[in-house]
């Protein structure tokens, strides 16, 4: 599926969800939701499972953007997605309900390994991944580092290489670490 196809799929899901002024309120859902914390290499990763498992259809894993949470990246579309499949969303190290650990690596590679470890914790052998922004970069790393757990990969607003961003972004990041 191309980028335009993905956009129509997501916008169609939003429109059919009733979000945005009619039907369900944004973020509301009548689908079952399970939440908890998974112990992953010293972290307590917060996760939510929306909807029910469907035989022969792997769950969809949502990877949020940098500075975001489950709610801020996916709050409006998550209920619509959970109507037709099981959806797993979680908050990466240092975001939302998942605390940061000062001496623990904080990288796309580490986040990819955490994603794989969470899926193992939840006994999920294979999943479709949807990553937004930094979540898209993490999804790419999951596919590179743990290809056996990825069935399909959908990226939105993700960098695939460093020179895909304006130089001022990297300069700002370097200054923020001072």
Could you please describe the fold and organization of this structure?
The chain is of the alpha/beta class and 178 residues long. It is 34% helix and 21% strand. It contains six helices and six strands, in the order αβββααβαβαβα. A six-stranded mixed sheet has the order 1-2-4-3-5-6. The radius of gyration is 16 Å and the shape is globular.
Pick out its properties.
34% helix; alpha/beta; 6 strands
Number of strands: 6
Quote the distance from N terminus to C terminus: 42 Å
Shape, please? globular
Mean pLDDT: 81
**Radius of gyration over C-alpha positions, nearest whole angstrom:** 16 Å
> DSSP strand (E) fraction?
15-25%
Q: Structural class of the secondary elements?
A: alpha/beta
Biggest beta sheet summary: 6 strands, mixed
Residue share in helices?
Answer: 25-40%
Give the spatial strand order of the biggest sheet. Answer: 1-2-4-3-5-6
Q: List segments where confidence is low: pLDDT < 50 over at least 5 consecutive residues.
A: 1-27
Q: How many helices does DSSP assign?
A: 6
Order of helices and strands: HEEEHHEHEHEH
């Amino acid at each position: 599926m191309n980028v335009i196809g993905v956009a129509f799929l997501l916008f169609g899901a939003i429109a059919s969800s009733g979000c945005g002024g009619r039907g369900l309120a944004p973020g509301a859902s009548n689908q079952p939701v399970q939440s908890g914390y998974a112990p992953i290499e010293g972290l307590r990763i917060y996760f939510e499972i929306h909807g029910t498992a469907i035989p022969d259809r792997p769950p969809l894993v949502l990877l949020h953007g940098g500075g975001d949470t489950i709610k801020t990246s996916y709050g409006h579309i998550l209920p619509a997605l959970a109507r037709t499949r099981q959806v797993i969303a979680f908050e990466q190290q240092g975001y939302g309900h998942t605390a940061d650990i000062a001496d623990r690596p904080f990288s796309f590679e580490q986040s990819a390994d955490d994603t794989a470890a969470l899926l193992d914790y939840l006994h999920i052998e294979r999943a479709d991944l949807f990553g937004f922004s930094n979540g898209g970069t993490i999804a790419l790393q999951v596919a590179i580092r743990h290809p056996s757990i990825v069935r399909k990969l959908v990226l939105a607003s993700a960098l695939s290489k460093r020179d895909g961003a304006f130089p001022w972004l990297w300069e700002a990041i370097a200054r923020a670490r001072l």
